[in-house]
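Exercise: predict the structure of this protein bound to AFP.
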Amino acid sequence: MKKISLTQYLVEQQREHGRIPAQLRLLIEVVARACKQIAISVNKGALGDVLGTATTENVQGEVQKKLDIIANEVLLEANSWGGHLAAMASEEMDSIHTVPDRYPQGEYLLLFDPLDGSSNIDVNVSIGTIFSVLKKVGHHHGVNEADFLQSGKAQAAAGYCIYGPQTTLALTVGDGVAMFTLDREQGSWVLTSENVQIPADTKEFAVNMSNMRHWAPPVKRYIDECLAGTDGPRGKDFNMRWIASMVADVHRILTRGGVFLYPWDKREPDKPGKLRLMYEANPMAFLVEQAGGAATNGHERILDITPGKLHERVSVVLGSKNEVERVTAYHAKAN
Ligand code: AFP
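Solution:
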């Protein structure tokens, strides 16, 4: 593959497909640069004052890690001056963050989980940043939370950066998925794969098995059949992976296939699931569908869900199309 930079890729994509107008290109480049900055902090580990917990809690009522706050600050600061954004929303902030009045407001809305997989920070396991881009609809001045409540199929772009053995950025603007690896000598993002495709079948599932006794019957049935292997109805053995960083589990699925489940469970029946719709499930569903995979909440396409609240949660089943369809079919039969 020709070694081209992120900038050249975006310019050529705009020339070819016309989906990356100047403001969106600037947004993507600014977010990619912010991820490089976050990677520097992540890679410092114990050598920088970045491990452990801060003294604060986020809107989810979770104790924040120092890196959660650092990553959030980096993204807010990087995106404030460019004139490409009207406002931002983050897992780490109760309400939306509008661009300061001293800067021009743009037409895009940026949502992010600045540091996904926080429970893995202090044990040196891959973590990531997830982002989703919407366009502000309507021509009213100013921006409010309601402007963000658009279904995932309205996304203009989505992506993540995984801070692992390599630092890799995955991106879609609706014309397939491309991946860029950080060249640390040059400090630049280099295109390392494009037109990523998820195999429709797989022998690998990702779920937190410790929750098994709390799942709804269709999920239990699906996993039991995977565990039954060649002697069971699936007639093949399965492997299991659970990294507990959604970015890392999704990256593996984009790279070699698989199915990821974070389903509803009966411990908190009013909570549809653990993962957040707007800045975890929607961007990952966009990427997975663009790579030929599928993503549902067990019943319907994640990208079709109309959000009611900025921080609402959702059940997630995503990855290899045939497996996601099987889990969804088991839910339909159960209803
Ligand atoms: P943290 O950011 O609190 O570690 O949660 C990560 C996450 O939102 C997602 O990245 C993982 O897939 C999932 O939660 C892991 O959840 P469990 O720790 O319950 O397995």
